[in-house]
Fold this sequence. Notes:
The chain is α+β, with helices and mostly antiparallel strands and 351 residues long. The chain has 2 domains: 2-187, no CATH class; 193-346, no CATH class. Helix content is 31%, strand content 20%. The protein contains 11 helices and 10 strands. The strands form 2 sheets. It has a 7-stranded mixed barrel with strand order 1-2-3-4-5-7-6. A hairpin with a 5-residue loop joins strand 6 and strand 7. Helix 7 (209-221) packs across helix 8 and helix 9 (304-312) runs antiparallel to helix 10 (319-336). The radius of gyration is 21 Å and the shape is globular. The relative contact order is 0.11.
Amino acid sequence: MKNCIIITCIFFLTSGPLTAQYEIQPSFEDTLKVYESLFDLDEPLNLTLQFDVKTFQRTRQKEKYQPAKMTCIVNDTFQVTHPVRVKARGIYRRDNCTTPPFWLNIRYSGIETEELKDVRRMKMVTRCRGAQQYSDYVLREYLVYRIYNLISPYSFRTRLVRLRYIDTGRKNKMTESWAFLIEPNEILAARFNARIVKSDKLSIRTVNRDIMDQMAMFQYMIGNGDYSVTGQHNLKILAMNRPGGPVGFVPVPYDFDYTGLVNAHYAIPGENLGINSVRERYFLGPCRSKLVHLEAISDLESFRKEIIELINEFELLDEEAKLDMTDYIEGFFSQASRERFIEREIATTCR
C-alpha cells in the first residue's frame, strides 16, 4: 500500500490555479508516504512547481533564491504541498539556458522524512530550452547516471521527474517537461558512512586505485573529457569510514551533459584535449599497466548486456535516440577489442 501511494503521485490535471479545497497542510505521515525512499524507486515522481518563472529566467545570474510552491498529488482528492525555494545553478547553462537547472531548497518546507532530515537542497536537472532535443538531452543524461548505477554502487542515484511549471509571472501559464533530481551529498555520504571531502591536494594518485580505474574507463566509454580529481571538477570525493568497504578516498562522478553519449549540440571538448567533438573519446585516467587497463575494460564488458538493455527498454526515448546511444556504447567495445588499443588510445593520454 505504501509504495502504491508513492507511485500514484500524478499531476493536478486542471488548467487553472490551485483551489482552496486542495490547499491541505500535510501531516508528518502524509510526507512520509510521498517522499520516503525518494531515490529507491524507478517510477517518475510527478511534481508541480508554482513560482514566477519569468522572474527566475530574468534573474538567473543572481545568487538569490526565490519562493515557490511544490505540489505532489497523493490521490484524486488530496495533494501534498510544501513551500520551497529555487535558484539557478550551473555555469554554462545558467548563461545559455532559457530555464537553467536549479537548486531546490527544502530547508523550511516541512518535509520531515528520515532520509531528508539533514538535506537543505537538491539539484534538479531540467530542460535547457523548449525544443524537443533538450528534453532528450535530459533523458539521455538521466540514463548515464543509471548506467553508472549498474557499474558502481559509489554513484549518485537519481529520480526522474515529470515536472509541471505554473508560471505566476505569466498568468499561471503551464508547461510540462522531463527533469530529474540528483541524490543530495548528505544522503550519498550517509549510505556509506562516509563524508564528502573538499581538498585541492587530492589527485588521481591519491584516491582509491581500483575505483578510480573503473570510473576512468567508464568516463572514456561514455565520452567524457570534462572531469578531474584535482579541483574536484564534476566529481565528489568520499572519505570512507565503512568497515569492510573500500579504503581511502572514493571518486563519485556527476554532470554528464558534456559526454559523447548525451551528444548535446552545445557540448564542446576542452581546448587542451586536442579533439574536435565530444563524440571523440579521450582518456583522462591514470597510467597503469596494460593488464590493469584490460581488467577495467573487462569489468565494463561484464555489464555490457545490462547497459544495452537499460537503454533499449527506456520507453521515453524514441528508437533513433536509443539506437544512437547503443551504437556509441558498442563502438567503445569494438574499439577496445582492437590490437594495440591500450598503446594507441589509453597510454598516449593517461596521466
